[in-house]
Amino acid sequence: MRFDRSAGVFCHLTSLPGPHGVGDLGGGARAFVDWLADADQSYWQFCPLGPTASIHGDSPYQSYSAFAGNPLLVSLDRLVDDGYLDQADLRIGADAGDEAAEPDFPDDHVDYDRVRAYKTPRLRTAAERFHADAAADDRVDFDAFRERASGWLDDYALFMALRTRYDGAWTDWPEPVRTRDPDALATHRAELADEIRYREFVQFVFDRQWRALRAYAGERGIEFVGDLPIYVALDSADVWAAPEVFDLTADHEPAAVAGVPPNPGDDGQRWGNPVYDWETLRTTGYEWWLDRLDRLLDLVDVARIDHFKGFDEFWAIPADADDPAAGEWRPAPGHDFFETVEAEVGALPFVVEDLGFLDPGLVDLRDRFGFPSMRVPHYADWCREGDMYQPMHYPVGSVGYTSTHDTDTLVGYYGSLPDRQRDCLRYNVGADGAEVHWSVIEAVWRSDAVVAFTTVQDVLGLGSEARFNRPGTATGNWTWRCTEAAFRDDDAARLARLTDEQIRN
Fold this sequence. Notes:
The chain has 18 helices and 12 strands. It has 505 residues and is of the alpha/beta class. The protein has a domain of 131 residues. Strand 1, helix 1 and strand 2 form a beta-alpha-beta unit. The protein is globular and about 70 Å long. The chain starts with 5 loop residues before the first strand and ends with a helix.
């Protein structure tokens, strides 16, 4: 896909302001779209949208499904507008009387456990009212959604219902359910019919609210950039429902798991996600992957492929090994896979994450399909002439970032640099250090990158306290949230002027 020169901002939906403890698909999302439009931006980028789990720190990269939407993103206010909740339902109190009030959630971070405890019973109330009293048009829409999404929804809804019954990962379920015995599944579908209908309803309203938000954004010239993690979580409907797609043992346990090998200065990483059985996938024409991409591209306009290296070759670690060094490189289908996808969907609207893996096989795969690659200043040696991660050296056709969800903010990064690197950065971007975030934003916007991205944190000039994720750490991530007051008109105007000067001209 050919990209026009343009610019955008990253902000995950959970980071948006809103009344119920987490950003959602309600008024805060629309206000952010308006701010993006005022800032003359073309793209809104965010993390994966799937259901998250407290056991994984609510990481959007460890989801219960690669197809479903996160229930926590459903707007309760929109359900009030639809008539399936009322204002009294949103209050805390025995009888939701006059003395009751909505909970006092923190507005600078997400307390996921509190949000989940608050939102889940209200989503269940909305589902009960919908199934009891839904208008005829809504019932038609619900049935149409169920039919359209049946390829993934049936298994997902049953999977989540079974997790509720057995209170744990599917790998610990009774053997007939774990291995998908048809009689056992039929019995559980009947016994868990109410829970399944609730899970279907939540996905229906997520889908409806998402499409309304996307239409609102489209009217204002904003397109969505979603994230495509190459791997899925072991404890997911994806692995349970399609074990043949993954490298599993006869007992449906992972035979090998994903990660990256040791590099000079580190020990590698063991991610723990099951790796794919690419030979089986090849024999099916990559059907599972085509379904996954079809769902994603039904929700977003452009996808960022995380860990693009894994489509060229992947590091497979024996599941019983704790040391990433015990793994080996295995070939992935690369060209054959993307040729198949291209034949199915046409122009490929992908940006690829190729940071740190610029070997010949990856470069050949990336360039064969014309995928824009990522450049991030945090990887630069600012004192080395011609460093590829310095914005003035971003190649034509790349996607230039100021920072990402996985890096420190610009201000935090700048403060952590050794003195000489800090001096070289200022020299290279023409900064005095007073507003280093705007200096680097401008440098990325001036670069030859076809698309320039910044983050909300960088626009606001926030430090490391606003970092969204620290890779390799298990706690304290994904919680940062901005307040409504943070979206200032003057920042939007400044970004619009910069975009008009450097991107539009």
